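[audit] Reproducing an earlier prediction to check determinism. Same input, same settings, fresh worker. If the tokens differ from the archived copy the diff job will pick it up downstream; this log only records the rerun itself.
[audit] input (155 residues):
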Amino acid sequence: MVVVPPTPRTAGAEASTPSTPDPAHGVAGEETAAGRYIRFQSVTATEAGINPGVFFLTGELGRAGLLAPEDERQWQTANEWYDAHCTDPSTVDPSLYTRYPRAACWFRAEAGVVLDRIALYLDILDRYGVPYERRESFRPGRVVYSDDTQVVVTP
């Protein structure tokens, strides 16, 4: 596993739509088989040993009312875009995070604009001094959910 400093992102190709997992992208219940995966997460683990991801970190700022009006709009706009273009794994399997409380989402490196738009969240974290790290791995863990842009894995 490699930890690399965050880098600015630019928009790329249109997002792909979710589909049934295939062996090249990882099959649920198996180690990730191929490809590189990327995750942006807190540098600090919770008491449960979880490093919250970028969506949770920015969400905490927003839900606590700590964002300036422009940042609030950016956060809401980014959330609306992800809701429209990406599958929330917990909507496919509502018990996913109950069954796997230490599960974490990783983007596929080839996720294009879905990965590029994370910069909107990283910009907010940078402005508010919330530390995070970019992690990359070819084998982030045991796959419990998979679609065209992401996997959810357990350690």
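[audit] rerun output stored. Observation attached for the diff report: The radius of gyration is 15 Å.
[audit] end
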